[in-house]
Design goal:
Layout: E1 2-4, H1 16-25, E2 31-34, H2 40-47, E3 51-55, H3 58-61, H4 66-78
Parallel strand pairs: 1-2, 2-3
Length: about 80
C-alpha cells in the first residue's frame, strides 16, 4: 500500500505522513513510501517503520545524470 507524502493539491511534501500512516496500514500489507525521498537516510528512516518499497522520482530527475545518480544512490544504500 502506497502513501504519497506529496499533497497533490499544494505539492508540498510531508515526510512524516508515511510514518503516521504506517500503523494504520498494518503489517499484512507491503508498505510503500512515495514522493519527497531524496536521501539514503530517508529510506533508512522509513524502513524503521516497516516500509519495504520507495517511489523516488524527483530527486533523480533533478540530477545532471539521473542514471549515475541512481547507481551512486543504490551503492550508498547497499553499504548501509
Amino acid at each position: 500500500m502506497g502513501v504519497n507524502n506529496r499533497n497533490l493539491k499544494t505539492f508540498t511534501v510531508d515526510m512524516d505522513k508515511s510514518i503516521r500512516m504506517a500503523e494504520q496500514i498494518g503489517s499484512s500489507r507491503v508498505r510503500i513510501a512515495e514522493s519527497g525521498i531524496g536521501s539514503v537516510e530517508d529510506i533508512l528512516n522509513f524502513r524503521q517503520y516497516g516500509f519495504e518499497g520507495f517511489l523516488i522520482g524527483e530527486y533523480f530527475m533533478k540530477q545532471d545524470d539521473p542514471a549515475a545518480a541512481f547507481i551512486a544512490f543504490t551503492h550508498k544504500l547497499k553499504s548501509r
